[in-house]
């Protein structure tokens, strides 16, 4: 059974780091980070990290283990993490790199405006309005 939950224990953090090590990544958690993990029968198969700073919530990564890709599990993981954010009053998630995957999942290209000058680190970026994301249906191909 697939479940999505907020990272909460040291054991989960250790298991997440084991998965991330395969992709030359390491998890360093700050108090403003929102990390969700996707579990398949208790085993971590995916994770997403959102960091908050200067009133900006930035998607740092979304990763699905290679042997679980192609089932649109990332869509469910994004929705789980973004539902948590929406319940915390967060309306927009930013991503400061290019990503065709995120563009397919509801992010749109945006340009910095004058009122964003001190908060956004790049002139162009991707942004997802969470409420708009939830107006679209979930796309998981996995059948239970």
Automatic annotation (TrEMBL):
Keyword Iron found: no
Matches recorded under InterPro entries: Acyl_CoA_acyltransferase (IPR016181), GNAT_dom (IPR000182)
Recorded superkingdom: Bacteria
Keywords, in A-Z order: Transferase
Entry annotated with the keyword Transferase: yes
GO molecular function, one term: acyltransferase activity, transferring groups other than amino-acyl groups
Location of the N-acetyltransferase domain: 1-131
UniProt name for this protein: GCN5-like N-acetyltransferase
Source organism (scientific name): Gottschalkia purinilytica (Clostridium purinilyticum)
């Amino acid at each position: 059974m697939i479940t999505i939950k907020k990272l909460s224990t040291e054991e989960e953090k250790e298991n997440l780091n084991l998965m991330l090590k395969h992709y030359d990544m390491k998890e360093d958690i700050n108090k403003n980070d929102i990390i969700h993990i996707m579990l398949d029968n208790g085993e971590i198969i995916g994770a997403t990290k959102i960091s908050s700073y200067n009133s900006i919530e930035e998607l740092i990564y979304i990763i699905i283990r290679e042997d679980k890709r192609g089932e649109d599990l990332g869509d469910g993981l994004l929705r789980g993490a973004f539902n948590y954010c929406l319940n915390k009053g967060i309306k927009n998630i930013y991503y400061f790199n290019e990503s065709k995957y995120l563009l397919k999942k509801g992010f749109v290209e945006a340009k910095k405006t004058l009122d964003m000058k001190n908060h956004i680190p790049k002139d162009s970026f991707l942004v997802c309005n969470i409420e708009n994301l939830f107006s679209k249906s979930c796309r998981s191909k996995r059948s239970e």
